[in-house]
Amino acid sequence: MTRHSIVWIVGVLALQVSAQVVDVDVSDPGNGSLLQYIPVHKAADTDSFVKLVTHIIDRPQNAQDLSLLGQIVHERAEEMFIQGAFHDAIDLFGMEAAIWKQADSLEQQCVAFTRMSRSHYRLGEHLQALHLANEALAMVADSSSTPRCEAAALIEIAWNNLRLLDYNKAIECLHKAEPMVAAGHYDLQHFSNALAKAYLYAGRLEESLNEIRKGLNAEEQEPGITATLIANQAPVYTLQGHYEEAIAQLKRANAINRRIGYKEQLSSNTLAIGGVFYRMGQLDSALSYITSGIEQSRAIGDRPRILYGYMRLADIYAAQGNFELAYEASRKRFELNDSLYGAAQLNKLASVEWERHLAHKQSEIDLLTTQKALHELNLRREKTIRNLSIGIIVLTLLFGGWLIHNIRASARRKQEASAERFSRELMESEMSALKAQMNPHFLFNTLNSIKVFIVRNEPRVAADYLAKFARLVRLTLQYSNSRLLTLEQEIEVLELYVLMETIRTDHAFESCIEVDDSIDAAHCKLPPMLLQPYVENAIWHGLAHKKNGKGHLNIRFTQSNGFLECIIEDDGVGRQAAQALRQEQSGLRKSLGMKITGDRIALINRMFEKKPSVRIRDLVDMTGNPAGTEVTVNIPLEMS
Fold it and tell me: Which of 83, 295, 410, 433 is buried deepest, with most CB atoms within 10 A?
């Protein structure tokens, strides 16, 4: 049982048990109401205020006094919420729910539960928030007289499903609430804000922008939500490349937030401004805003935004070449991520990844030092040979000329052979280091899929998924030290990975892997894990967000002109919609696997005469609308 659940229960018990300690004299004033002492709540701290209210609700109160008391507690709770004191807000909303229960006001009790849910949401406690919102909806499920509260509960459920990445369920909940909003039972601005976010996360950009406009044109305007809607235009402008306009809208929203003291949105928009400056390449401005945003978020305990701030801070430091500070920001990010989501293994894998990266850099330094020493040795050797040759020429021009010719030719051949061998060894060392980075990245993505099943409370699916994951880990470890894999082995890993992703997405797509009869899969070889990032991109950023019908993933292997050709084709949402999703969740995740794969292909280009290549083509339907993506990877067969 959480701390805040206990607080709510204590609030209910306070209706029957007398408070023993009150900071003001509340002796019985005769027939007068104890509510005369409530005005001191404006100046009292939260603990004193709670003691006073507890003492008052312990005494018999008429319906009018209970209603007034509930309104006063609600006002104080909302004040704490706006100031970012979410723990105090949860305590007070719990007490308010107890008061409305005594007053037999089902609707007001439901509202208090939805506000508790929103406070947990701001703390990043999405499972607790979702539980409270469902309880609020259950309270009024059989009542036709509480449409306002039913709409509020549905909207809170939608917000938490967005954070749990279930966009379709979020949109479904909001559509259920839409008739109640249209009938005037719930604020249009708040509803438009929620639906605009849901559409944006789902890649439906025009619908998102239309909802923002509806909210800004609403007859009744609330400053806080108006500021939020203004700020929500920024991601659209950013995707369109209108960076200055995006920053202007965020600053305009923050001017309102400062005026009304809305600290939570102030910190969010400050971080967003830093993110836009980062995209513009203005790293100093980005660093200033991100640092300020982290401090603002820390002051109000907004852990999800602190997490985002550290992630963006690591990107900025890395872009500046300050890898020590980038590592420190990443470490803080993973530590906070563990406290939010309980994925302790993610931090261990991140540490291993950074240690390998730093070890690789040190190895490069050592190799360059050795190369310099060899070069100086060769220079000294050549100088000695040249001096010796001059002496021999003095003794005999004929014998000396012949000797000089042979010595120089021999030295040149040795130097060229040594340089070629050293270059190949250096490139193979770099290739091994890049593979060492790829494996932890792949494990990160798989662990994230397992987390989704656990959050959805599907133990059997999670257990089956874990068994497949264990086999995949064994294969990954088995092949991690191999410079090359057979096509047969690569397909075995891809089939298992695609099967796991099919289960994760509730069979949202079908897959097919075809190998041309002319290819000997048991002897044809290629670098390990070279194709997996492109398959992952097709699933995560294309098929996972497809709305209409089941998706299809086709992987075909053919050979032509000395190359093994792999075609990865999906009929997902396309790259433009996927880019919009990554902008909104810049969070969560960057395509490290794609960057590493590009680096590995660049190294292969230096090692072989025939160069591998990658082509990406956007697919469209008959009307010109996006219809998926096709990636073609050509790998030289001479690698075998």
Answer: 433
